[in-house]
Design a protein that fits this description.
Blueprint (H helix, E strand, L loop, with lengths): L3 E8 L2 E6 L10 H16 L5 E5 L4 E3 L4 H4 L4 H7 L3 H7 L5 E5 L2 E3 L1 H8 L2 E5 L3 E3 L13 H9 L1 H10 L2 E3 H6 L5 E3 L4 H13 L3 H13 L5 H15 L3 H11 L10
Parallel strand pairs: 2-3, 3-5, 4-6, 5-7, 6-8, 7-10
Antiparallel strand pairs: 1-2, 8-9
Helix pairs in contact: 1-4, 6-7, 10-11
The chain binds acetoacetyl-coenzyme A.
């Protein structure tokens, strides 16, 4: 792969995926997105991996879809290439996916971070949907996910002005989980991942699926979905082990079975 670096065993049960087009601020071209989709699919199937961290570098998580690649395209080219269909696959990742964001997370970069389950931000992170400044609008979920994450007023402002949200503002509006000094953002993401990696991977997948359902359905249907997934956890050895360990006053050892 040219634009993605993967370490499947960055820490125990934790994979690290790096967007790796630093000179272009990790602009998300078609090849990078295909490599990312394939990587996440492979990690989803890797039984040793329980949590995935997606990151860029200190200066940029990603500065958006590749404008130079899109510049000469017609509407029909865009429709035929349908570049955002790759993003639908990324959303289907079953394992917990943490974005560790420093620097620019703009346009498609912000949308990619929001496609992840949680965002750990460095204090230098900047979020925004500046597509309006180049005569277009968000196309990979920005108008929907940002609005759900931070509310209509602020989302509308960001989408219509192209202004950036600082890391502290992003924390205030609930877009990110935490903000840490820039030199610690990856470490902070790893700490979060390590906590989750100790849990039952079966329960983690089902719980992730259920939380995400809250954004896609009405309450009764969501509650029904949650209950079914809760009952399904009782098909796992991890449920037996987790409850037995509680009774025996010891730490559970989850295997993902
Ligand atoms: N696409 C292609 N190339 C990009 C890029 C992008 N989104 N963002 C940055 N780059 C390239 C620059 O062209 C430049 O390349 P050259 O050195 O070859 O000229 C290199 O990365 C470094 O960028 P700058 O010199 O501009 O760096 P800066 O620090 O002065 O500015 C920035 C940083 C404010 C992020 C600025 O690069 C910028 O505004 N980038 C575009 C942001 C943007 O509009 N993103 C939305 C894209 S559209 C989209 O994402 C649609 C969608 O919904 C998916």
């Amino acid at each position: 792969m040219e634009f993605i670096k993967v370490n499947t065993q960055y820490k125990k049960h934790i994979a690290l995926v790096n967007l790796n087009r630093p000179k272009e601020l990790n602009a998300l071209n078609l090849q990078l997105m295909t490599e990312l989709k394939n990587t996440l699919q492979a990690l989803d199937e890797d039984v040793d991996v329980r949590v995935i961290i997606l990151t860029g570098n200190e200066k940029a998580f990603a500065a958006g879809a590749d404008i130079k690649q899109m510049a000469g395209k017609t509407a029909i080219d865009m429709l035929n290439v349908d570049q955002f269909s790759t993003w639908d696959q990324i959303k289907k990742t079953k394992k917990p996916l943490i974005a560790a964001v420093s620097g620019f997370a703009l346009g498609g970069g912000c949308e990619l971070a929001m496609t992840c389950d949680m965002i750990v931000a460095s204090e230098s992170a900047k979020f925004g949907q500046p597509e309006i400044k180049i005569g277009v609008m968000p196309g990979a979920g920005g108008t929907q996910r940002l609005t759900r994450a931070i509310g209509k007023a602020k989302a509308m402002e960001l989408v219509l002005t192209g202004n950036f949200l600082s890391a502290e503002e992003a924390l205030h509006y609930g877009l990110v989980n935490n903000v840490v000094p820039t030199e610690m953002y990856l470490e902070a993401a790893v700490e979060l991942a390590e906590q989750i990696a100790q849990m039952s991977p079966v329960a983690a997948k089902l719980a992730k699926e259920s939380v995400n359902r809250a954004f896609e359905t009405h309450l009764d249907e969501g509650l029904h979905f949650e209950r079914k997934n809760f009952y399904l956890t009782f098909a796992s050895e991890d449920q037996t082990e987790g409850m037995k360990a509680f009774v025996e006053k010891r730490k559970p050892l989850f295997t993902g079975k």
